[in-house]
Design goal:
The protein is 46% helix and 12% strand. The protein is of the alpha+beta class. 8% of the residues are buried.
Length: 145
């Protein structure tokens, strides 16, 4: 519905549609024709939508395992590793999901993470600590949350 609305809009406004999720085989096949010169999306039910020039698709996926080499070659890929993002988005997302009764403590939780958790993870990565089983910052943080 969002895609149809954006392609039929004649206001001159540019539309960015963000597709976020796991890239499965049927999803990848639907996108293949959207990324070539025809700019058509063909859905599994037989419906076809022609993308107008004012519509841009942005695809955010954890991996492209189901994507064919042809599909991957049509995409402008940008890889952002976990180390570049850090753990603060994980903590923020976790805090946003807390119940209303915990919301009154958000400021206190932020202070605790800043004063305790972030320095502990920095210590784990420093020269004074040797891990027998390697971990990632996100893994350590998720095990805490």
């Amino acid at each position: 519905q969002i895609l149809r609305h954006a392609t039929q809009d004649n206001s001159g406004m540019h539309h960015w549609i963000v597709l976020d999720g796991q890239c499965n085989l049927s999803w990848a096949e639907c996108l293949a024709t959207a990324l070539d010169d025809s700019r058509r999306i063909s859905f599994g039910n037989g419906e076809t939508v022609l993308l107008s020039p004012s519509v841009t698709l942005a695809i955010e996926a954890a991996d492209l395992q189901s994507a064919s080499p042809a599909l991957a070659s049509c995409c402008g890929l940008c890889y952002v590793g976990a180390a570049a993002i850090g753990i603060k988005p994980l903590v923020t997302s976790w805090m946003q999901g807390l119940s209303a009764s915990c919301a009154v403590h958000l400021h206190r939780l932020e202070l605790l993470f800043t004063a305790v958790v972030y320095p502990i993870i920095a210590f784990l990565r420093g020269p004074a600590c040797v891990e027998l089983l390697p971990t990632t910052d996100a893994g350590v943080c998720l095990s805490l949350l």
